[in-house]
Amino acid sequence: MSRYIVDSVSNGTIVYFIIRDTSNNSIVPLPTKYLKFKKNLGRKKKTLKNIALKLTWYLNYLEDNKLTINKVLELSAFEQQEHFTSYLHFIRAGRHTASGKCPDNNTANDYLRSIFDFYDFVILEYDNGTALKVLRDSTFVYTNSIGLRYAKTVKTFHGYLPREEHHAKSITEDDLHTLISSARTKRDKLLLLLLEETGFRIGEILGIKYTTDIDFENKKVFVRYRETNPNGAYAKYAEERGARISNSTFDLLMIYLTDTTELRKNTDYLFVSESGPSKGKPLTLSGVNSLFERLEKRCGISGHSHMLRHYFANERRKAGWDMAQISTSLGHKNIATTEAYLNVEDDELAEANDNYFVESMKFVNINDFL
């Protein structure tokens, strides 16, 4: 039976995750303080819960092996290497949960990275100069399209499991054109176009409020983090991100807003359900999934919202965007692919997007709706 579990407390408006010791029903101070630290950095509820689960798995592993955080810090480099390598195989074998589900190598490595991040917090919190001996400096170097060279040094572990390659599914331009053509309402066409033109996650798209999140003058749509969206849609990080949309898509947006004024009279969310018991309420993820199911029946193309996010990245790369622009637009936080690519300005992204719209074939003729 696991000694350490994830629990939560609320002050009425804000939920905090805690780690509880079931042997005496007490809160475990250090990992709980780390979770609050992460919340203050803007991590969303789902992310915080995942971090909390990873911490409990590791704390239970320490308990089973009669170790503590301080004892691990005191181990020799060889002993630390053995400890963390053994933990990776423990996770990979599915022994961390009662279900026995075995994560792949990449997921197991990610779990260990979270533990290393926790150790970083512990070391900074106590400021005692003790560091994990198994972490080594690695430098990532990137040269952009005009020859400027960026470098960032990070700590890495040389015992990670071999990376497994995943080939993320994208969608072809022809298939995307067919999907948009098969969409029967302005809402559905607009949703597909915004996914393709912004690269936003579906939760970010569904969280857009037309009253606050659209810059009509500059034809720009914004992601803004909220924990209270009634449709359960959330941005991944507590940060603001914006993307300019094409003239034709902006025109369709204006027509959609005009035609659906009555439908949206009780909400300021951009996308709402158009029929059924939830008519007029903010559109949900299940509603988007149903849309893709309907489109597949009509045109035979199996798709989902994340495929359009991959399409966005692939097409921008073909159009000459560098990785810094793509990563910033997608809102990525991976240290090796995003944090090392610094100083991407909003004006640079807007200019690159404008160039893309001019040079690329668009999928909607606004005259069809006038």
UniProtKB/TrEMBL annotation:
<dbReference type="GO" id="GO:0006310">
    <property type="term" value="P:DNA recombination"/>
</dbReference>
<dbReference type="InterPro" id="IPR011010">
    <property type="entry name" value="DNA_brk_join_enz"/>
</dbReference>
<keyword id="KW-0233">DNA recombination</keyword>
<dbReference type="GO" id="GO:0003677">
    <property type="term" value="F:DNA binding"/>
</dbReference>
<protein>
    <submittedName>
        <fullName>Recombinase</fullName>
    </submittedName>
</protein>
<dbReference type="Pfam" id="PF00589">
    <property type="entry name" value="Phage_integrase"/>
</dbReference>
<dbReference type="InterPro" id="IPR050090">
    <property type="entry name" value="Tyrosine_recombinase_XerCD"/>
</dbReference>
<feature type="domain" description="Tyr recombinase">
    <location>
        <begin position="166"/>
        <end position="354"/>
    </location>
</feature>
<dbReference type="InterPro" id="IPR002104">
    <property type="entry name" value="Integrase_catalytic"/>
</dbReference>
<comment type="similarity">
    <text>Belongs to the 'phage' integrase family.</text>
</comment>
<dbReference type="GO" id="GO:0015074">
    <property type="term" value="P:DNA integration"/>
</dbReference>
<keyword id="KW-0238">DNA-binding</keyword>
<dbReference type="InterPro" id="IPR013762">
    <property type="entry name" value="Integrase-like_cat_sf"/>
</dbReference>
